[in-house]
TrEMBL record:
InterPro entries named among the record's database cross-references: BFD-like_2Fe2S-bd_dom, BFD-like_2Fe2S-bd_dom_sf
Protein name in UniProt: BFD domain protein (2Fe-2S)-binding domain protein
Cleaved signal peptide residues: none
One Pfam family linked to the record: Fer2_BFD
Organism of this sequence: Rhodopirellula europaea 6C
């Protein structure tokens, strides 16, 4: 009968380390997909913005507001719109996890509300 050999460099040993186990158990990293909303105020999906950039070829990032009003609400998505606009390949740009994106926007909105 063959027995597994305990090798200090095996994958199993690597995952046994506390850091590797924590990383392994972590929720899987997810980035914004084309159908996820980029502008949460006006529910404009990332795909629409990318298409607008590709087809309309806006000269300024502010022209992205003509894409279903993206960025004209609370302003949370403007830095991300800017990133897509400045990217040579907007569809390859890595944007945050949609759940985290929504939670961060909630904090942003609370902060805005408290400042008013
Ligand atoms: S999320 Fe786009 S303007 Fe508020």
């Amino acid at each position: 009968m063959l027995r597994p050999i305990s090798c200090p460099f095996s994958i199993r040993t690597q995952f046994a380390s506390p850091y590797a186990t924590r990383w392994h158990n972590r929720k899987r990293f997810r980035t914004m997909k084309p159908d996820d909303d980029l502008c949460l105020c006006f529910h404009v999906p990332r795909r629409k913005v990318e298409q607008y950039i590709r087809v309309q070829k806006p000269r300024r990032a502010s022209e992205l507001s003509e894409c279903f009003g993206a960025g004209t609400g609370c302003g949370w998505c403007r830095p991300f719109l800017q990133r897509l606009f400045e990217s040579s390949q907007p569809d390859a740009e890595v944007l945050p996890d949609p759940d985290q994106y929504q939670n961060d926007r909630k904090s942003y909105r609370k902060q805005q509300f408290n400042n008013d």
